[in-house]
């Protein structure tokens, strides 16, 4: 076979091949939808980010949830609280911040909390609080830290850091008591006149501002004197005789 014949054959075959390709049925390429992912009832498409814990980054890849986990911090912060949360990555976090536990009580980090009548605890991290005695002994009785009243006349304050008690007496009014039957009512410190101003006419207690006539004399309580405190034994009323015992009048008719 010479060269021209070979060229002809190749050309012919090429034309035939082109004819076959041009007349072959063409089918449309099918569209394949990537599979989705589902988490907690939510559907995620290919490549969508999926919410996860703070220690990992997740997305939907070919119908599966794919996650990249971060390295856990060192030291483990989960040791700084009593209610840590563990994630799929193995890391732990303290959702409520550092805290401590005393009995059934959770104490936030850095706060002083009274856990009972006589104890205050502080959380410094690590799960175990540091506690101290909080109160004072005064007159053989225990009092919590702060202000207290051992009697109606005393106001005291307990300093638990020094276990010292500082007290002061209540000051009563400086006004005179214008009665002879003053009392101290329950829960009060100062005397009061429950029946108002009064005085004695002999052994008879009479109200102030009124004349008392026993048939032989007329008596009246003296006018209030700011320098005079009646007390329980006085003063006596000012009296003048009447009737046959009265002194003769010096008034001219």
From TrEMBL:
Positions of the VWFC domain: 35-101
Pfam families for the chain: VWC2L_2nd (PF23334)
Fetch the InterPro entries from UniProt: VWC2/VWC2L, VWF_dom
Q: Residue span of the signal peptide, if any?
A: 1-18
State a GO cellular component annotated for this protein: extracellular space
Q: Which UniProt keywords apply?
A: Signal
Alphabetical list of SMART domains matching this protein:
VWC (SM00214)
Q: Which GO terms describe its biological process?
A: negative regulation of BMP signaling pathway
Identify this protein by name. Answer: von Willebrand factor C domain-containing protein 2-like
The record lists the organism as Mizuhopecten yessoensis
From which lineage does this chain's organism come?
A: Eukaryota, Metazoa, Spiralia, Lophotrochozoa, Mollusca
């Amino acid at each position: 076979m010479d060269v021209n014949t070979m060229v002809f054959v190749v050309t012919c075959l090429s034309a035939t091949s082109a004819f076959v390709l041009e007349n072959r049925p063409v089918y449309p390429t099918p569209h394949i939808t990537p599979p989705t992912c589902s988490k907690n009832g939510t559907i995620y498409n290919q490549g969508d980010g999926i919410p996860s814990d703070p220690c990992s980054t997740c997305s939907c890849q070919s119908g599966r949830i794919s996650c990249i986990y971060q390295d856990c911090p060192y030291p483990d912060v989960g040791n700084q609280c009593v209610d840590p949360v563990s994630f799929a990555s193995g890391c732990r976090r303290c959702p409520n911040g550092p805290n401590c536990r005393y009995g059934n009580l959770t104490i936030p980090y850095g706060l002083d909390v009274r856990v009972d009548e006589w104890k205050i605890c502080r959380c410094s991290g690590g799960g175990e609080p540091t506690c101290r005695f909080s109160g004072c002994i005064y007159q053989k009785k225990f009092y919590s830290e702060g202000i207290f009243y051992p009697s109606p006349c005393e106001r005291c304050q307990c300093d638990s850091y020094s276990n010292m008690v500082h007290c002061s007496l209540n000051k009563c009014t400086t006004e005179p008591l214008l009665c002879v039957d003053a009392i101290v009512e329950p829960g009060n410190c100062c005397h009061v006149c429950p029946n108002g101003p009064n005085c004695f006419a002999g052994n008879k207690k009479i109200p102030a501002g009124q004349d008392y006539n026993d048939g032989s004399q007329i008596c009246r309580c003296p006018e209030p004197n700011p320098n005079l405190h009646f007390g329980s034994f006085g003063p006596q009323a000012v009296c003048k005789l009447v009737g046959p015992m009265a002194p003769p009048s010096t008034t001219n008719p």
